[in-house]
Amino acid sequence: MHFSTETGQEREFALGDIPGVLWTPGDHNGPLILLGHGGGQHKKAPGVVARAQRYLTAGFAIAAIDAPGYGDRPPSPEQKKLTADFRERLGAGANPWHAVADYNVAMVRWTVPEWRATIDALATLGYGPFGYFGLSMGSAIGIPLAAAEPRISAATFGLVGLETLAEAAAAITIPVEFVLQWDDQLVPREQSLKLFDTIGSSVDKEIPVQKTLHANPGGHGEVPAFELDSSVRFFSRHLKPTAAG
Amino acid sequence: MHFSTETGQEREFALGDIPGVLWTPGDHNGPLILLGHGGGQHKKAPGVVARAQRYLTAGFAIAAIDAPGYGDRPPSPEQKKLTADFRERLGAGANPWHAVADYNVAMVRWTVPEWRATIDALATLGYGPFGYFGLSMGSAIGIPLAAAEPRISAATFGLVGLETLAEAAAAITIPVEFVLQWDDQLVPREQSLKLFDTIGSSVDKEIPVQKTLHANPGGHGEVPAFELDSSVRFFSRHLKPTAAG
After folding, report:
1. A 204-233 residues inside an 8 A Cβ radius of B
2. N or C: which end of chain A has fewer CB within 10 A?
3. Do A226 and B208 touch (CB under 8 A)?
């Protein structure tokens, strides 16, 4: 992990081909939240930076990377084809959720190994335990990542459905806060409810709760601002066991 | 409203036949949360008192009354018959949710006018705005109450389904936090999801959010403790507009 520019609490880094950014509250190298951006976003998109600032204020370190073909990373020929196919399907009137789900399968294949390499590097620097936040494409990638990666110990997911994710969702046993938009124009409500139902995190009397669903009216991009505060409390409950819930 | 015993911040009262209790933080007579108890509970059941203490700490006044036939109120002959009929149906293997829903219809008819008289008396003393909290039977009564009573301006409901409540739910336009238990053995999940869907509170761009759903694994009585903190924040957002969300 090679660090370049440093501005206050923010340091950009490169890990091989992967450009990323690390926000750190002071000298702290404890609990860290991995931020997975959504489709059309990148590691320093305004929503990602605003969320990182909020987590930073709550005492967490945060790391974000550009997914392949996003942000500072030019798309590979394979990815250009993926995007062209996706747009063609939408243009031909395909069900947008099916098209998105298939697009995301390719993104999972490319991005999950990169996140795992990033966690390796951050763990070497002493960070952890790790949380993961990502909605929409950030969840489509994050759910298989969390299923494969035992170092992630709590996650906020949402704006995504069961299709293509059933096996990974069932394998997840960490605490999950799941955000659903009741009038999501992209992800059918039933798909999201089934995904929440499938997440393997069970009720364990020894641990307060393993999964919790927050649903709000509005479309795909209209998650209310108070869910950010809720996410802070969720990560505080699970990544800082001694902090107030 | 006639006050009798006073112990610190707690005063018992009688309003005609209705026994109640009022908790007040200091000299404050501002925002007040009405606590509607569930079936088998009463105005000073342990869960009601613990919740009142938490709201009190957050600066709210709280009022709770015994529903007819509960707590200090002997059941009327009509209510004895209602309870006997309910038990007979359950004993005969009836769908418990149908039996509960029908039982609650009678409770609504008796209890809603009593809550409205209580609000009259509390408003005369200067309390308000009013929130309402009640789950299960407390929601079966609270939803028609909030639909009829313009002085209630935010409510936490849950553990209840659409059946017999559709008309009242559609008439509700205030902010609502709705609590659902994913494995509720009494209320079918689909019934609760339909009720949340039917609640009339719409997305208004001028107001952050009008209804929000929190679902957690577990049975009817297993709402996790962190939902109490969430309810405090919900009422703070909506009853104390200047307080932090």
Report:
1. 208-218, 222, 224-226, 229-230, 233
2. C
3. yes
Tell me if A34 sits within 8 A of A119, measured CB to CB: yes
- Asked if residue A102 has pLDDT above 70, the reply is yes
Q: What is the pLDDT of residues B74-122, one digit of tens each?
A: 999 999 999 999 999 999 998 888 899 899 999 999 999 999 999 999 9
CB contact under 8 A, A226 and B237: yes
Helix (H, G, I), strand (E, B) or coil at B208: coil
Q: How far is CA B196 from CA A178, B221, B230, in A?
A: 17, 19, 18
Q: How many CA atoms lie within 13 A of A44 on its CB side?
A: 12
Q: What is the pLDDT of residue A6?
A: 86
Mean pLDDT of B2-28: 92
pLDDT averaged over chain B?
Answer: 92
Q: Strands A10-15, B61-65: parallel, antiparallel or unpaired by DSSP?
A: unpaired
In order of A108, A119, A134, B150, the CA distances from A129 in angstroms are: 23, 10, 17, 48
pLDDT tens digits, one per residue of B26-51: 877 899 999 999 999 999 999 999 99
Cα three-residue angle A135-A166-A68, rounded to 5 degrees: 45
Instruction: Give the whole-angstrom CA distance, residue B211 versus residue B214.
Output: 10
How far from B18 is each of A106, B65, B83, B178, CA to CA, in Å? 64, 7, 20, 28
Cβ within 8 Å of residue B16, ≥6 positions away: B117
What is the spatial distance between Cα A26 and Cα B3, in angstroms, rounded to a whole number? 55
- Helix, strand, coil percentages for chain B (3-state, nearest 5): 40, 20, 40
CB B215 to CB A216 under 8 A?
no
Q: Yes or no: say if B134 and B47 are a contact pair by the CB < 8 Å rule.
A: no
Give the C-alpha distances (Å, rounded to integers) separating A182 from A45, A162, A226: 25, 16, 16
The nearest alpha carbon in chain B to A211 belongs to B216
